[in-house]
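Budget justification note: compute hours in this period were largely spent on complex prediction jobs such as the one shown. Inputs:
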Amino acid sequence: MSTHGADLQLSPPTDTLSSVGEVEALKRIFPRLPASSGALLGPGDDAAVVAAPDARFVVTTDMMIHGPDFRLAWSTPHDLGWKAAITNLADVAAMGAVPSALVVAIAAPLDTPVATLEGIADGLRDACAAHAPGTGVVGGDLSVSNTLTLAVTAFGSLEGRKPVVRSGAAVGDTVAVAGELGRAGAGIWLLFAEGTSVLPTRPDKTAAPASEQLPEPEGQPDAELGRKLREQHPELVEAQLAPTSPLDAGRRAGTAGATAMLDVSDGLILDAGRIALASGVSIEFLHDAIEAEAESLRALDPVVGAQARDFVLCGGEDHAMLATFSSGAALPEGFRMIGVVTERAPGHPLVTVGGEAYVRPGGWDPFSDWNGATG
Amino acid sequence: MSTHGADLQLSPPTDTLSSVGEVEALKRIFPRLPASSGALLGPGDDAAVVAAPDARFVVTTDMMIHGPDFRLAWSTPHDLGWKAAITNLADVAAMGAVPSALVVAIAAPLDTPVATLEGIADGLRDACAAHAPGTGVVGGDLSVSNTLTLAVTAFGSLEGRKPVVRSGAAVGDTVAVAGELGRAGAGIWLLFAEGTSVLPTRPDKTAAPASEQLPEPEGQPDAELGRKLREQHPELVEAQLAPTSPLDAGRRAGTAGATAMLDVSDGLILDAGRIALASGVSIEFLHDAIEAEAESLRALDPVVGAQARDFVLCGGEDHAMLATFSSGAALPEGFRMIGVVTERAPGHPLVTVGGEAYVRPGGWDPFSDWNGATG
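Corresponding output:
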């Protein structure tokens, strides 16, 4: 594990982007960033040069924006850098590739403490060191914006293998998952339910059974309440704010000949539907397997209660690897079977659970419902 | 020249990101984007796969943010896509590489018309078709933000050549430039001087000679005034809002063995200083060559007047290729000699013009002075 930059002090909070200037800010951020073992030419020129040993490279890009994607009241700067790295590296791994490098563009308000940017750099470094050693930042950009924004582009190498795309699942394949399900979704539910300073309300006329009463997207994210929740429910809240992803399982699935794969970003049902749609098949999750996932989430933290199954099936941002394998094949290390690929008959749903179509309980989604005025 | 997507209608202005939703917006933007001939796997999966024929790839990233980097009052959506493509491709070309692909992340307010996003896509497509045919968009991300933001990452191939870095200039080398100097700087000066709705003022006590009286960073960018300026001074205003860059000159310089190169983003003096600093040399611009550049800018548009020389030396964003070549070498097509590389004696400036250190006249810089409250 790289300790490059790990012992550097943070700048005092009075040093801001505008008070020290861009050049000095970059000078302080730079030594904290992880180096890439694949960089043939690193940062500092018009562009970097990165090795692509099998004459191809995998590339994905994703932005994180203050408001819809994170709240500074709940996420530390270290969380932001960590999450930006992991979410992008998970997309690389979901192709069956091994991460190699990142470029990172950050835009921040002028009054942003330099220590915030340093914390983001530390999070990038620590996520790479912990989950993708050798992967580093080969280039970047620092700009001014009224809205704190991170744009990360991640690269990887297929090491000569075929990319594992979404469209290769075949009838009879085994559906398997590596990593956790439902934790990050339960984490964001907890933060909105109990981490905001105005208590959520729901008009009686739309009252749902108690287990389905999700909070309204109201209230202001509260730093102190968020900290408390993180202490009380570390597994759930950390899965949301500083997620991990079984990146190496992606490579193992590629090596084992997975027929299709993606990382679970928007929930198991929705993401399985993407594989089913692209492959022209249906995906049937096994009742017992999903119950076991729900039971395991409930055992981890009883606060999820009767909603455990919904978090498992609908919770996003866990970045588990969801893959299909030919029925005869042994599952690679870290994968557990949770379903099978079936024929898609006319009118048949893309995804079923225990043979039934799954209907998500009424509720709100803090992301799709975000309106730019709150948080 | 690709006409892919070129005949698609824009959506009606009443269709916004929030009224049609992300999925539908992407569906409309997608067919307008340029395809990449180097894409082994295009958009639509967790990540794309791009060819890297010589087992390396060149990568650079740059954000454009509403406020510091552009104003919607002056730039059309097509301008934004065009400029985002060109500025990034120029960084690829400045390594001596040939552009191959882009990934594009856009974050926009919910009330953004879909037609704005379509216009950005059209600008990306038309810039690639005009200046880097075969280069296309292999992936992207669409998010919600209070601040319209474009983050582009561009890729290129060195075709087996060494990258042309900033640190290779040697004493005796010829300094040469391909492309235009001073136009984009004069364009932004014009826009701030005459394209804002409040006329700039300068207190008498700081009055400089007339030729140096640059406007204050005051006033609101005005769409109608901007349109008028673009009609009256098309070369200067378009160089700022929809720049071109001699991308192919970058490859030619690489092939011809340029010893150092960058694209002029922040002004000739400042960027030459970067080569000089990295190479441990000084750069001497020839008096007559700079006068000829200034004269040519004045001939193009007399509005630049006595400031022509300052625009040539300090104007940024022209994305000309500034390169050094061994003294015996023939300059590649499109390059003209403007200086020589000299020894850096102790206390000697990094860059001189006609043997003298250049001191920039007092003035403001709309970018470094941008404070987030205006525009």
